């Protein structure tokens, strides 16, 4: 019933991650509540128009209604909203910010947002990221990679197209080169601000092979709309490994603009 309501009535976008189901469920619960309120208050409004029309009450009553029912209904609504907030929304948030997969069990990706694109970096065949230093950040080295570190030689860096394997947790470390951006992956039900000077983790597990648009959920300048030019590509395990091998060594300092 929830899936039918979510996709046939609410027309929620395609879901392509395991963690997104809880988000969709919350959306369904909230809309059922709003539907109940719409129907309930509409009937109540119609009843009031009939019950207190001028033909039935030619003389105004300044005492008004003394019924306690509206107060009880309002308290019940507050109670339902509290359950949705404390019992559903907060646990979803807590799970997303407190429980991250182990790096060795996940696809680890560093993402650096910039005006107006997305840079991504992967460890190479050795499974290790090369050393980084903020002092080395430049137009042609957005991650501040130390080219002298041997571990950086096989690292992978890409621009606006981020590949991940299906059915494996993805652990993203998100930052920004310039202003505040926000990584929004609608199909994965993930939104996380990218803040200069911070490296913020977020995670999801993709479940469907496909190509999904990346959006920026923060107004980040005149070219903000261009941030929608980024994509998350979910591959099979074999296709991802083939793609990653073809990009090995691309993280050497270079310009992607």
Helices and strands in order:
Elements: H1 2-9, H2 20-51, H3 69-98, E1 107-114, E2 117-122, E3 156-159, E4 161-165, E5 170-176, E6 181-185, E7 190-194, E8 200-204, E9 210-216, E10 230-235, H4 237-246
Parallel strand pairs: 1-5, 4-10
Antiparallel strand pairs: 1-2, 2-3, 5-8, 6-7, 6-9, 9-10
Helix pairs in contact: 1-2, 2-3
Walk me through the structure:
This protein is an alpha+beta fold. The protein has 4 helices and 10 strands. The chain has helices at 2-9, 20-51, 69-98, 237-246; strands at residues 107-114, 117-122, 156-159, 161-165, 170-176, 181-185, 190-194, 200-204, 210-216, 230-235. The chain has a 5-stranded mixed beta sheet with strand order 3-2-1-5-8, with no helix packed on it. It has a 5-stranded mixed beta sheet with strand order 4-10-9-6-7. It is elongated and about 90 Å long. The model has no long low-confidence stretch (mean pLDDT 89).
Order of helices and strands: HHHEEEEEEEEEEH
Largest sheet: 5 strands, mixed
Number of helices: 4
User: Percent of residues in helical segments?
Assistant: 25-40%
Strand content: 15-25%
Strand order of the main beta sheet, please?
A: 3-2-1-5-8
- Global Rg: 25 Å
Shape: elongated
> Quick one: how many beta strands?
10
CATH level 1 class label of the largest domain: Mainly Beta
CATH topology of the largest domain, what is it called? Immunoglobulin-like
The CATH homologous superfamily of the largest domain is called Cupredoxins -  blue copper proteins
Kindly report the average pLDDT value.
89
Overall CATH architecture of the largest domain: Sandwich
* Low-pLDDT sequence parts: none
